[in-house]
Specification:
Radius of gyration: 33 Å
Number of strands: 35
Strand content: 25-35%
Structural class: alpha+beta
Shape: globular
């Protein structure tokens, strides 16, 4: 049975039993500061379990995309670990509990294939229950499972929580006996490769906090309702129903593995048993490749791009593990252009958007692979030099700090360091490496702990929301209104009164104030209550449906329950609305010129200005930016209507409305459209017509990370003000240059050219002085392994261009038939730099100027085989740089 068919049957079974089918949320866990990715199918439903939001249904079913990386080192070594996986889940919010979950799971698992089930043999299913859960034990007995196949287990196995504060509860897991060829007899307690877990029924009834480990946590109390959260691993069930040894061999993964095996000339499975833990190392690497390539496809598909932090770092690590694994199997060329399309074809039957977005996905993936291959080449040069230096010193060990530097600074994998060092007869100080890694991880954990909020104490907010229900926002239709103070909240919780000078949080029954969200800044304004007046300085939404005003009491006092009048700052609102509408226009116009891959990655809509971040592999040319700006302003002149309406997600997609990566939307969505030009899902405020923007002026475009660019622009009067200042500046320059305004640029260019010519003459004079000693230095070249080597420090005050000229002049004065390397260091501003040049005869000996510079500067520097340079190290290291060049020459000529 194909994986896509298993998915379909699962959804159909629960939909037929009264469950609402809920689409998968994006992989980014944007609503929880503790999670980079969704690690379990229940994560999107956490607000319902905690009673932060009222679920729109009592029963739900989903197939949730998930990514887990804590066990990444186990990928390929077991039959059940993977990074990306799909979790079938059925959920009950205060509806059915243990009996319902057990009955529904048993029915689908054992129902015949012809009857729409999975047709699993009931005699091979082993349920587990928590140690003292006699109720669940009896339910399995009543369903027909003999007591010897019902296993009681402790917290480690049968108590479930997310690993962070939140909901949890005891659980009952279902294992399937795959037969004696997969391991020992005796049930899940004995062998979890033979007895494969495929479904976990969590009886969600507690709230936990102070989570230190799987078994070390504190139960705060019972949840408001008893709930059900189940997770059936789609890949695990597929491996059982498809009769394969592990989840790397199912139909959605095996083709990637097979293509990697073909590229590397390996025969998968030829030297392994059915037990994954007894696999040949080559088979483990092939599984890692298949798993990680698929994971990278899904992450980039959901809008994650490779970077050095957060989600992007996890993606980068996963991709580099795959690239390294295929190189260790012997394939030295780029692999992703061959493997990623295979992964797309495997996954697009379930996720057709992967095929539609493949141009964007592949551009990021291929660019990352090229970058890492360059890192590997540079790292190999540095490692070779370090190995030679260790051998010269008589050591049989490569220092742990050198291995850590290669790993941490240059991304050079430790296992590759171990392998290369072993080939050269050296051990690696793994203890020192692990100590440095542990120190780094401890610092990272401490930083994460400092920032971790979990599901913080929201009891004061929750009590307000529970008592009165969601707050009505009227700001789309009105700018002021009468309302009543529902609650006051201070640092210690609920307040009855606040006086002049106090900063408090205030909740109104109904409000026109927009809470910050979707990149749009919050409204400001005033609230008058009785004889008191409050200044609104911020508006937030700590819980879905609860709008909280952060206020300063200007005069008088305010009490909970009093009637009041709320009025927003209209000028600020209008300016922000202009910026938000302009952001939609920038988004659509960028896509018009750069293609649909130019998707929004963040934004800021502030009074009179906007910041728009978007995904694109490279810089946007000035001519394209000019055309984008011109097209936007032409749209303003068309005076298009700006409308919004509420519709279903399905209808919004049909209309072509853009949705943002990483955003989660409800069943009903708000669509904002600017004529027929732009249509996007959005909850923010906007102008009524495009002409109200007045003018949009793009100020800059720059990179803010790998594959992410940022545009900043001014809107309306702020844009006019900027142009007016530019006009004053041009007029002043025209006056100084004594030319008309339209000739200022030409006149400035003439002056700059004159200055540059003068600087060039000065450079020539300095260069002549520096080059006077070139002949003598060339004649003093020493022999080093058959290489004419010149290593010296440049005269004091020599500029960078002078040093490069001197290096090339010395090289030119050495007999071309004689291999020659010239290395010159220089000092400036407390830093040392290095320039290396070599001739064709030296290149024929296998030398490269770029490699020599990187070896001396631990990977820094750039250039080519003939000429390269680098710097940035302390000036006191000048002598060390020249010695490192000598060592690198010796290594390369061994």
């Amino acid at each position: 049975m194909k994986t896509a068919e298993i998915r379909r049957r699962y959804l159909a079974h629960f939909e037929a039993n009264g469950h609402t089918v809920v689409p998968s949320a994006p992989l980014q866990a944007i609503d929880d500061p503790n999670l980079l990715f969704v690690p379990a199918g229940m994560v999107p439903f956490v607000p319902f379990f905690l009673n932060h939001r009222t679920p729109p249904y009592q029963r739900a079913v989903s197939v949730q995309k998930c990514v887990r990386t804590p066990d990444i080192d186990e990928v390929g070594k077991t039959s059940r670990h993977c990074t990306f996986f799909q979790m079938n889940g059925n959920f009950s919010f205060g509806d059915y509990f243990k009996q319902g979950a057990i009955d529904l799971a048993w029915a689908l698992s054992t129902k015949t294939v012809e009857g729409g089930g999975f047709g699993l043999d009931p005699e091979r299913i082993w349920p587990t229950v928590y140690l003292d859960d006699d109720e669940a034990f009896d339910m399995w007995r009543q369903i027909g499972v003999p007591p010897e196949r019902i296993v009681r287990r402790g917290k480690k196995d049968n108590w479930w929580h997310m690993g962070i504060p939140g909901p949890g509860g005891t659980c009952s897991e279902l294992f399937y006996d795959r037969g004696p060829e997969y391991g020992r007899d005796g049930g899940p307690e004995v062998d979890e490769d033979r007895y494969l877990e495929f479904w976990n029924l969590v009886f969600m009834q507690y709230e936990v906090t102070d989570v230190k480990s799987k078994e070390n946590f504190t139960v705060v109390g019972e949840l408001p309702k008893k709930n059900i959260d189940t997770g059936m691993g789609l890949e695990r069930v597929a491996s059982i129903l498809q009769g394969v040894d592990n989840l790397y061999e199912i139909d959605e993964v095996r083709p990637i593995l097979a293509r990697a095996a073909e590229l590397t000339g390996k025969q998968y499975g030829a030297h392994s048993s059915k037990v994954a833990g007894e696999s040949n190392p080559d088979d483990v690497r092939l599984r890692v490749i298949a798993d990680h390539v698929r994971t990278a496809l899904m992450l980039i598909g959901d809008g994650v791009t490779p970077s050095n932090e957060g989600r992007g770092y996890v993606l980068r690590r996963i991709m580099r593990r795959a690239i390294r694994a295929i190189r260790l199997l012997g394939w030295q060329e780029p692999a992703l252009p061959i493997l990623l399309p295979v992964a797309r074809d495997c996954m697009s039957p379930s996720y057709p958007e992967l095929a539609e977005e493949f141009g964007r996905i592949s551009s990021y993936a291929y660019q990352e692979e090229e970058s890492f291959l360059s890192t590997l080449r540079a790292g190999t040069v540095i490692l070779d030099t370090a190995i030679t230096e260790a051998k010269k010193s008589g050591s049989s060990q490569l220092a742990g700090d050198k291995a850590f530097q290669l790993h941490d600074t240059y991304g050079f994998p430790i296992d590759l360091t171990l392998e290369i060092a072993q080939e050269q007869g050296l051990e690696v100080d793994q203890q020192g490496f692990r100590r440095l890694m542990a120190d780094q991880q401890a610092r990272a954990k401490a930083d994460a702990a400092a920032r971790k909020m979990g599901h913080a104490d929201l009891s004061a907010y929750r009590s307000v929301l529970d008592a009165g229900g969601p707050i009505t926002f009227t700001g789309y239709q009105e700018l002021s209104r009468e309302s009543r103070v529902r609650a006051l909240i201070g640092g210690s919780g609920r307040l009855e009164v606040a006086g002049e000078g106090d900063f408090v949080e205030l909740v109104l029954d109904t409000t026109p104030f927009y809470a910050e969200g979707g990149g749009q800044q919050a409204d400001h304004g005033v609230i008058k209550v009785g004889g008191g007046q409050l200044e609104v300085v911020d508006v937030q939404q700590p819980l879905p449906g609860l709008i909280v005003h952060k206020v300063r009491v200007l005069r008088g006092e305010v009490r909970a329950g009093e009637a009041g009048f709320a009025e927003i700052d209209v000028t600020r609102r209008q300016a922000i609305s202009r910026s938000h509408t302009a952001t939609h226009l920038v988004h659509q116009t960028m896509r018009n010129f750069l293609g649909e891959s130019a998707t929004q990655a963040g934004s800021l809509n502030a009074p009179g200005r906007l910041r728009f971040d978007f995904n694109t592999p490279g810089a946007v040319s000035p001519s394209v930016l000019h055309d984008v700006e011109q097209q936007i302003n032409e749209v303003l002149l068309l005076d298009l209507d700006v409308n919004w309406f509420i519709t279903s997600q399905e209808e919004a997609r049909r209309l072509g409305a853009m949705a943002l990566f990483g955003e989660k939307y409800g069943d009903k969505v708000r669509v904002v459209e600017i004529g027929d030009y732009a249509r996007e899902l959005c909850g923010g405020t906007h102008v009524a017509r495009s002409s109200q923007l007045g003018l949009v002026k793009i100020l800059s475009e720059a990179s803010i990370g790998s594959g992410v660019r940022r545009v900043e622009a001014l809107v309306g009067l702020d844009a006019f003000g900027f142009l007016a200042k530019e006009h004053v500046l041009v007029s002043r320059l025209a006056e100084l240059f004594r030319v008309p305004g339209d000739q200022v640029a030409d006149r400035a260019e003439q002056i700059v050219t004159t200055l540059r010519d003068a600087e060039k003459e000065l450079e020539k004079l300095r260069a002549q002085m520096v080059l006077e000693g070139a002949r003598a230095l060339a004649e003093q070249a020493t022999e080093l392994r058959g290489i004419a080597y010149v290593g010296t420090e440049a005269p004091e005050g020599a500029a960078g261009n002078d040093v490069r000229a001197l290096v090339q002049e010395i090289r030119g004065r050495i007999d071309p038939a004689r291999p020659a390397v010239v290395a010159i260091t220089a000092r400036a501003g407390g830093k040392a730099s290095l320039v290396v040049a070599l001739n064709a005869a030296a290149k024929s000996r296998g030398l490269s100027a770029a490699d020599l510079v990187k070896a001396a500067l631990s990977g820094r520097g750039g250039g080519n085989a003939d000429l390269a340079q680098g710097g940035g190290v302390p000036a006191g290291q000048v002598a060390n740089l020249l010695q490192s060049v000598r060592t690198a020459i010796e290594v390369a000529t061994d």
